[in-house]
Amino acid sequence: MSWICGVVLLLLAAGWLFLRMRCGSRYAALRELSMEGLRLRRLGEPLLLLVEQGRIASYLPSVMFRIQRSLQRLYGMRYSAERTLLFLGEMLSYSWLLLAGGSALTLLTGEQTGMILGGLLAVALPVAMVSDLHKKVRVREQNIMLELPELLNSIVLLVGAGETVQRAIIRCVNSRHGDSAHPLYAELMKMTAEWDGGYSFQQAFENFSKRCAVQEVSIFTTTVLLNYRRGGADFVLSLRDLSRMLWEKRKAISRTRGEQASSKLVFPMVVIFLIVIVLVGTPALMMLKM
């Protein structure tokens, strides 16, 4: 088994060096592309060549589509193909490191556990990375949904007080300028920047809806675009009806998050219960034996 691990380790190292020489500075431009969670960019650059020339994406089209779609929702449509390539390179980098580490451990200790564990983790970790990516998208959508009713209430109050829709949105964004990290207000700031850059109200609003990629935001956008020219009581009334619907959805998301938080506490409570049983039962058993 040790000589097999030695051959695997040698092939992994030689393959990486060969790909490193082949790719050169081909992916140097991707180093400046902003993307959270990437820690192995330099190590993964040779593996990007393997992804492209090996056409790995063509073997798993549905998985690749879901990954690219999730990255588009997190970072936008621009450079989505490049970010998908970087994400695949990161996955392969971790798998390469785990296989190499497991082979080296088996080679040093002579135990097969290292190779087996490295192989299992090399498969499990990329799956966990994809799952975590989809989870980030769900959390982003929930955060937008939780904040959207508050924004809508503010817009209703300002429009009812005589402000135009555009001025009301700008005032809401300026009042929450410290929340630029929040996905909803980050997209709203991009929308106001598009207004300043010459985009029309309708075009900027449609771009905002596409970037958010949330059904409730699309409903909000459609309601505003259909009614903002009319103004008056009809417009405020339509926004209030939408606000009531969004508040109900916000309550449902809050209940879901509460149930998820309580379910996460089950395992620690079971562990604490077992520890208490051991602490209480051990002295009693010792006394019975005496």
Structure, explained:
The protein is mainly alpha-helical and 290 residues long. The two termini are 51 Å apart. It has helices at 2-23, 41-53, 61-75, 80-109, 113-160, 165-175, 183-196, 201-212, 215-227, 232-264, 266-289. The chain crosses the membrane at residues 85-108, 114-133, 265-288.
Distance between the termini: 51 Å
Total strands: the figure is: 0
How many individual helices? 11
Secondary-structure element order, N to C: HHHHHHHHHHH
- The 3D shape can be described as flat
Percentage of β-strand residues: under 5%
Gyration radius over CA: 27 Å
As a percent range, the share of helical residues equals over 70%
Strand count, sense and closure of the main sheet? none
**Low-pLDDT sequence parts:** none
Indicate the mean pLDDT.
Answer: 81
Structural class: mainly alpha
